[in-house]
Amino acid sequence: MAPGVDGLPAAEREVDVSGPVAEFVRATSPSFRNQLRLGLRVFEWLPFPWRFSRLSPEQAEEYLRKLEGSRLSLHHDLLLMAKILATLGYAVTAPVQARIGFEVRCGLADGTLPEPAGGLGDTEPRGEGEECDVLVIGSGAGGAVAAAELAEAGLDVLVLEAGRHYDRDSYPSDHLEAIAELYRDAGLTIAAGKPPIPVPVAKVVGGTTVINSGTCFRAPREVLERWRREHGVEWALELAADYAEAEHTLRVTPLDPERMGRNGQLAMEGAAALGASGGPIARNAGSCVQCSSCPFGCEIDAKRGMHVSYLPRAVAAGARLRAGVEARRLLVEDGRAVGVAARAAPNRRPGRDYTVRARRAVVVAGGAFGTPELLQRSGLGGGAVGRNLHIHPACWVGARYAEEVRGWDGVMQSYYVDQWEPQGLLLEATFTPLAFGGAWLLGAGVDHQRAMLDFGHVGSIGVHLCDRSAGRVGLGPEGGIRASYKLTRDDADRLAFGIARAAEVHFAAGATEVYPNIPRVGTLKPGDLATFEATRFKPGELRLEAFHPMGTARIGAEDEGACAADGSLYGTEALYVADASLFPTSVGVNPMMTVIAFAKQIARGIAESA
Ligand SMILES: Cc1cc2nc3c(=O)[nH]c(=O)nc-3n(C[C@H](O)[C@H](O)[C@H](O)COP(=O)(O)OP(=O)(O)OC[C@H]3O[C@@H](n4cnc5c(N)ncnc54)[C@H](O)[C@@H]3O)c2cc1C
Ligand code: SF4
Questions:
Q1: Count of other CB atoms within 10 angstroms of residue 510
Q2: In the structure, what pLDDT confidence band is assigned to residue 543 with cuts at 50, 70 and 90?
Q3: d(CA 197, CA 226)
Q4: Does residue 548's CB lie within 6 angstroms of at least one atom of ligand 2?
Q5: DSSP H helical segments within 92-174, as ranges?
Q6: What distance in angstroms lies between residue 136's CA and the mean position of ligand 1's atoms?
Q7: Ligand 1 pocket mutation pick from 183, 208, 250 by most atoms within 8 angstroms of CB
Q8: How many Å lie between the centroid of ligand 2 and the Cα of residue 293?
Q9: What CA–CA distance (Å, rounded) separates 411 from 102?
Q10: Contact, 564 vs 572, CB < 8 A?
Q11: How many CA atoms lie less than 13 Å away from 143 in the CB half-sphere?
């Protein structure tokens, strides 16, 4: 895939790619590995009667070009699969990063280090189990905040987290290892459908807040109003104080345009030239100045994820946190949740049984995948559990600029454009690190390598859709989950409209060409937009990813929702949900702050009634 060109090393001959990638694939889910095996077999035999792995470098190059120029979506899907894996392994190597000039340099504007966060106590599960008043399952945006709120109300709280504990002293420096360690299924949780959409979530103490981009938005008032009016979230318009407290705790600050980095500034200039509304993004990373490596854990913990904010606060108030403990089945006696049967594997060893009993309540906060998984595995909740999966499908729209952008010398997510919010679209200047963004670049083989060499001239905008399409989460045959998502024609049209708007912003900022991430289109030049907009694309033609799963245990009336407005699961006493699963519909903006506000509401209710 990477023969080596213009000073870039050749894969395998000069840098080892297949070894680390094979190791990485071990951390993915069994169902992903099965699909991958099948995909790789087809990729290998497609040049029949020859095999890809036995082709000469020239023949391999020719074959990859054929796939790139093909009209068949199968060919594009296979090529993308191969590019994603090969780029992950290749782009993280030091010689490649050095040749491209890509650097990871986390830092604060004044050159200091953020002060150390409070400790998390002894996170080791000991013996066969323990007891508490309230058991919280999951330590992400929902679980950590619920734990802090409940512990500060005087309850004896225990938090179980399936992932391990990492912070600035221990994040793996190797990016492949970081993805395998910090993410569920090594970041390759895929919602099956046309197109298949990767929806990564974290599995680590602090949940997805450890690897997210730190962008902080309050939910739009109209969305909250609709949730109150149509879905029974009676307190939806009473979240202002909760948002404000969270903004204070997480030190949410709008970015200074001066230190956004060029990628954000270009989006700002393009939007201004079009008269499109937007602004610098507010983030929970204080005065961090760079470096687009948020998805690997912030090397200095400038980003105030839950592991350095609400979890230390919960522990200071007496909560206990156990890492590497996966809740497997909720325990219910006489219709009441009384604890959980879990598996403790804190040190990568096979693990042992661990049982927690809760005297007052159990709060499930495993995220929009983990929560329905646990409820379904326990046979709890009605038919609404697992349905109504919304994800904010998103498209990476890259562009080439004559000037140097060096997106890695700036904040990863930096400028938003909300001009097209009425159409459900939010554009965010987001620079993706080479390991991920590299796979979206056009070309294969030598062409793809040249595109990577030019990465310093690429700017990118993420187009996020407030989706009406939905999917579901069920249990997979080999354990774990099976997620699926059906992108409607209508949502595909709205995404194509959003891609055109992102292209417009890029061109207005001076881009010479834009990559709409649709194989049939390839590259857009400034005069191509009208033709692009006159073309209708099938959902399966779009290349999407998504970062905001939600809605899989939604609040609603008993005949449509899984939970009542106080977060309690219908049908089981003393069992609550407090995470992104609760959202009745897609929220339309980055969801972390609204997850936090919801968790505060739910936890206060539990504390009052427990
Ligand atoms: C790459 C990326 C970037 C993002 N950027 C932003 C952003 O900039 N701004 C924003 O607002 N949002 C962002 N998000 C989304 C945001 O982080 C999530 O919406 C939010 O963290 C969801 O909170 P949660 O509590 O529902 O789940 P999570 O934060 O995912 O936490 C769930 C936790 O529960 C644990 N768990 C699951 N099942 C079990 C079990 N059975 N036993 C024990 N533990 C379990 C998981 O391991 C996980 O740690 C981003 C997401 C991604 C993937
Ligand atoms: S961009 Fe992200 S990883 Fe880099 S310093 Fe800021 S918060 Fe940390």
A1: 15
A2: very high
A3: 27
A4: no
A5: 94-100, 141-152
A6: 15
A7: 208
A8: 6
A9: 14
A10: no
A11: 33
Kindly state if the Cβ of 288 falls inside 6 Å of ligand 2. yes
Tally of CB atoms within 10 A around 596: 30
Question: For residues 192 and 535, what is the distance between their CA atoms, to the nearest angstrom?
Answer: 25
How far, in Å, from the CA of 281 to the mean position of ligand 2? 14
Among all bound ligands, the one having the nearest atom to the CA of 213 is 1
351 contacts: CB under 8 Å, gap ≥ 6: 343, 344, 345
Q: Which neighbouring-strand residues pair with 215?
A: 283
Asked, as a colleague might, if the bond just before 200 is cis with ω within 30 of 0, I would say no
Contact assessment for residue 125 and residue 162, using Cβ atoms and an 8 Å cutoff: no
Residue 372 Cβ < 6 Å to ligand 1: no
CB atoms under 10 Å from CB of 505, counted, come to: 30
Determine which residue's CA is closest to atom 5 belonging to ligand 2.
106
C-alpha 575 – ligand 1 centre gap (Å)? 20
45-86 per-position pLDDT tens digit: 999 899 999 999 889 989 998 998 888 888 888 888 888 899
**Spatial contact of 21 and 435, defined as CB atoms under 8 Å apart:** no
Distances 520 to 52, 76, 450, 460, 602 between C-alpha atoms, Å: 24, 10, 21, 20, 47
Which protein residue has the closest C-alpha to ligand 1 atom 2?
212
Q: Nearest C-alpha to atom 37 of ligand 1 is from which residue?
A: 366
Query: Is the shortest distance between the CB of 250 and ligand 1 below 6 Å?
Result: no
How many beta carbons lie within 10 A of that of residue 352, not counting itself?
A: 12
Tokens, residue 81: 């699969």
Please tell me the distance from the alpha carbon of residue 227 to that of residue 554, in angstroms, as a whole number: 11
Nearest to 456 by CA among 92, 8, 102: 102
563: tokens are 């939970």
Tens of pLDDT, residues 148-171: 999 999 999 999 999 999 999 999
C-alpha count within 13 angstroms, C-beta hemisphere, residue 509? 32
Kindly list the catalytic residues. Answer: 548
**Average pLDDT in the chain:** 94
Using only C-alpha atoms, the chain has a radius of gyration, in whole angstroms, of 23
Ligand number, closest to the Cα atom of 412: 2
- Give yes or no for residue 440 having a pLDDT over 80: yes
Phi, psi of 280 (to 5 degrees): -65, 140
| 573, 335 contact by CB (below 8 A) | yes
Distance between CA atoms of residues 224 and 238, nearest Å: 9
Q: In Å, what is the CA distance from 596 to each residue of 229, 295, 311, 368, 513?
A: 21, 20, 13, 14, 40
Rounded Cα distance, 502 and 508, in Å? 10
String of DSSP letters for 465-519? E----EEEEEE-TTSSEEEEEE--HHHHHHHHHHHHHHHHHHHHTT-SEEE-S-T
